[in-house]
Specification:
Helix content is about 80%, strand content about 0%. It is an all-alpha fold. It is globular.
């Protein structure tokens, strides 16, 4: 499989996952446990928020499906799941970056030192905000892998943080929206509310897919997929 074919296939990960999760949120029998989950959250207040964010951080740092946590955030907290998911995503992405910068970057650069490595490192650092934000919008690499690898580059802390925030915001909102659709279905919301939420999710999902494809194309143009 060529690099171009592989990236073309990877572009479709987002729409396939989005459609599958949306259908699951709409059709699966959430009635048995989502109300219980929301009751537990309502009864524990800030403790429930803290537990969710801490679990999210662990999931992001390990090779686990972080997007699923955003869906759970929508199911459990409704639209409050969005800022909570963003907090968990950001904190979970910052820790691997700091670990990579502090303890891993130096030894690896000494081991793989060379003009091509140094040139690539400089190019990424000089376009840090654009590179990181585009990378966050694409499924080229798993989110957890991105966090650890970006810690090995010369990208500075604050450009990394702001670009990650900008790149994560659309996709995280889409995942929380899916969870909210499931929450509405579980609470037997009126059909009109479900249709409005579903139509909004479809429109926003199309936007996220388009943004991901544009970001992937720009990364390919920059030579990111080349060996």
């Amino acid at each position: 499989m060529t690099d171009g074919t592989q990236l073309t296939w990877q572009i479709w990960i987002w729409p396939i996952a989005l459609v599958g999760l949306a259908l699951g949120a709409w059709l699966l029998p959430w009635d048995d446990w989502v109300p219980l989950l929301r009751d537990w959250v309502a009864g524990h207040g800030a403790t429930g928020w803290l537990v969710f964010v801490l679990v999210y951080i662990v999931v992001v740092m390990l090779p686990l499906p972080a997007a699923a946590m955003s869906v759970v955030g929508g199911l459990a907290f409704g639209w409050w799941g969005y800022p909570l998911s963003m907090a968990g995503s950001m904190l979970g992405s910052i820790l691997p970056y700091l670990i990579g910068r502090r303890w891993l970057r130096g030894p690896l650069l000494r081991r793989f030192n060379g003009p091509r490595v140094a040139a690539a490192d400089r190019a990424i650092a000089q376009n840090a905000v654009l590179f990181v934000s585009l990378l966050r919008l694409t499924p080229i690499l798993p989110f957890t892998v991105q966090n650890w690898l970006l810690g090995l580059t010369d990208i500075r802390f604050w450009p990394y943080v702001w670009a990650t925030l900008a790149g994560l915001a659309p996709g995280t909102l889409a995942m929380v929206w899916i969870g909210e659709v499931g929450g509405l279905a579980s609470t037997r919301a009126q059909g009109g509310q479900l249709y409005i939420a579903g139509a909004g999710l479809l429109a926003f999902g199309i936007l996220v897919i388009w943004m991901g494809r544009v970001a992937t194309r720009e990364l390919r143009r920059a030579g990111f997929d080349q060996s």
